[in-house]
Amino acid sequence: MGKNYVDIENDHGETLRYRKHANGRGLIAHGAKVHPTAIVEAGAYVEPGVQIAAGARIGRGVWVESDALIGPEVIVAPHAHIGPGAAIGAGAKIGIRTVIGAHARVAVGSLLGDDETISENERVATDRRGLRLAA
After folding, report:
1. Cβ of 116: how many Cβ atoms within 10 Å?
2. What residue ranges in the chain does DSSP mark as E strands?
3. 13-61: per-residue pLDDT in tens?
4. CB within 8 A of 13, min separation 6: which ones?
5. Residue/partner pairs of 40-45 with CB below 8 Å, 24 or more apart
6. CA–CA separation, 10 vs 98, rounded Å?
7. Per its UniProt entry, which superkingdom is the organism in (predicted)?
């Protein structure tokens, strides 16, 4: 039986330990909190301080940086990047290769398409079709 964790050295020479999430086998850093019903697919990285709520789905190759908040029933498509301190509201959908900047906010139920970029500290709200709403 293989080990259920991986040690990875970061850019500062520190070794971080990641455990493999039971639902999907994605890598969860020590200090991150992932609800047992959330799915974190293989190849995804969840950094320390992240919180992922019930029913969320994190696709393969997604990187969720430190202290980000992922709400219930959020879907993050493969290869997206969620910046440090960003918050994604309940039921939001984040497209393939979409980048959410540091401390950005995505409103509840928002739909972001593929290859979009949300700037640092930006606040975004869309309707169910993905059309931006006035702030």
Report:
1. 16
2. 5-9, 15-20, 27-29, 33-34, 39-40, 45-46, 51-52, 57-58, 63-64, 69-70, 75-76, 81-82, 87-88, 93-94, 99-100, 105-106, 111-112, 117-118, 123-124
3. 888 889 999 999 999 999 999 999 999 999 999 999 999 999 999 999 9
4. none
5. 41/78, 45/18
6. 23
7. Bacteria
